[in-house]
């Protein structure tokens, strides 16, 4: 009984320490981005789109994939950098990925897009709390890709954490642990997370 209790306490302590690390990691601002073959942004917030378009404009990638776009959303709706329409020369280098409906779907959409355009080094743009899971799923889908994280810190993480933000981080931490468990046990993902339309 004592061994069981000790094991539970150790597990709880490890879980709590992992969550503290996860929160600190999620609040880390992005580093200076290196130049890559392509840029991939996973939808979920306007700040992610703005950051990815700015990176494309800055020459940090040749092409940009916006993964997980709704069926009726256009590039005009998504691109609001400077509140000016994107020039045709820039918008022609942007692909709207409409098949992904989950992070696993983002991974498959990213791998397919990179293979189609013969890209090998990708700058991945998503929220800091989503980055670890996104990298894990993409690298599992295509281990040959070199992935460079460019985390975006949402406004909610810049200020003292509120209760809704803590719940969000707890959910994302749980999803990350679930993805890690799947990675360690080698459970197959198939093409779950992709729309059939």
TrEMBL record:
CDD domains: YdcF-like. It holds the Pfam family DUF218. Residues 37-173 form the DUF218 domain. This is DUF218 domain-containing protein. It comes from Gluconobacter wancherniae NBRC 103581.
């Amino acid at each position: 009984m004592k061994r069981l209790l000790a094991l539970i306490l150790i597990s709880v302590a490890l879980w709590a320490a992992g969550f503290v690390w996860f929160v600190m990691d999620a609040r880390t601002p992005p580093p200076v981005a290196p130049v890559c073959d392509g840029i991939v942004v996973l939808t979920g917030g306007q700040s992610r789109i703005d950051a990815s378009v700015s990176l494309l404009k800055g020459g940090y990638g040749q092409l940009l994939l916006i993964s997980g776009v709704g069926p009726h959303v256009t590039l005009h709706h998504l691109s609001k950098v400077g509140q000016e329409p994107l020039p045709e020369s820039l918008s022609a280098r942007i692909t709207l990925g409409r098949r992904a409906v989950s992070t696993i779907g983002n991974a498959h959409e990213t791998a397919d897009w990179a293979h189609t355009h013969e890209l090998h080094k990708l700058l991945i743009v998503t929220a800091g709390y989503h980055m670890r899971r996104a990298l894990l799923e993409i690298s599992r889908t295509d281990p040959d890709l070199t992935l460079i994280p460019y985390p975006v810190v949402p406004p909610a993480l810049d200020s003292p954490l509120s209760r809704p933000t803590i719940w969000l981080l707890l959910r994302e931490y749980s999803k990350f642990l679930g993805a890690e468990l799947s990675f360690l046990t080698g459970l197959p993902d198939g093409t779950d997370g992709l729309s059939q339309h």
